[in-house]
Amino acid sequence: MKLNRERTVPELCGMAQRMRRTALGMVYAAGPLGGHIASALSIMEICAVLYGAVMKINPALPLSPDRDRFLLSKGHGALALYTGLAEAGLLTSDELATYEQPETILTGQPGMCAEKGIEIASGSLGLGLSIGIGVALAGRKSNRKYRTYVLLGDGECNEGTVWEAAMAASHYKLDHLIAIIDVNGMQSDGPCNTILDMGSHEEKWSSFGWDVRSVNGHDVSALLGILTEDRLGDCRPLAIIARTVKGKGVSFMENNNQWHHSRLSKQQYQAALLELES
Asked: Which is the most buried residue in 103, 214, 215, 252, by most CB within 10 A?
């Protein structure tokens, strides 16, 4: 199984910014359909590190049984998934240009297309971790060494199914299962702590029997360190609490919930690109 080219930290930072610019272009081209741009911008570094340096995937063998699996449970972050897949060689620029167009495989929320690296259909929140448990158990039963990465949102963690899955993962000692929680503090209806306050994510995941790490979700070096850490001997699943900024990289989108899902005018698009190119 081939490991993605191991990019340096500066290269991964550049990759994340390139993914942001590409995602903005996709949303702008989608016109009135728009897209969940701010929710994707918060996870660009996470996806860049996974697709640029960590996950074992081979674009020439996209269905290899030994590939690592990435499951985007917060399906509204699809633009980060699609741009990451393009950087990894699983999607072409022509395919990216079909985003939200008729007959596309790149819908606003992902539809399963494993040969293109889209492992699950997601968008109905709270389901990805349960699927990840099944994927991880299947790997164990077939003696495969792949890892299963599941990316969730903090608002998504309001769903009870997340915690049922968290209990099961700990019970089955799924040490090759990694949950990454995008804690950007916001969900579609407003701030997470006013919609339904979850308290400390670190304490909650730890109390469910997970090995827990906290990180600045935009710190590429720190993400890389955690995701490549040797955890031999620890049979617990790993939860990475990644604190991020919704809309990261575009000042007028940062922490502005009006951009949870929206369309870009030409002026806004040009202004956002200027920020990301500076």
From this structure: 215
- Please give the share of the chain, as a percent, with pLDDT higher than 90: 91
Whether the model clears a pTM of 0.90, i.e. scores above it, the answer is yes
Instruction: Please calculate the CA angle 197-216-263 and round it to the nearest 5 degrees.
Output: 75
Checking 21-26 for CB contacts under 8 A at 24+ apart, the result is 21/273, 21/276, 21/277, 22/83, 22/86, 22/96, 23/79, 23/80, 23/82, 23/83, 24/250, 24/264, 24/269, 24/272, 24/273, 24/276, 25/269, 26/79, 26/82, 26/83, 26/96, 26/97, 26/99, 26/100
Q: How far apart are CA 138 and CA 238, in angstroms?
A: 18
| Listed residue (18, 15, 83, 78) closest to 52, CA to CA | 15
For the stretch 26-43, pLDDT in tens is: 999 999 988 999 999 999
Spans of the chain below 70 pLDDT: 1-5
* CB 135 within 8 Å of CB 110: no
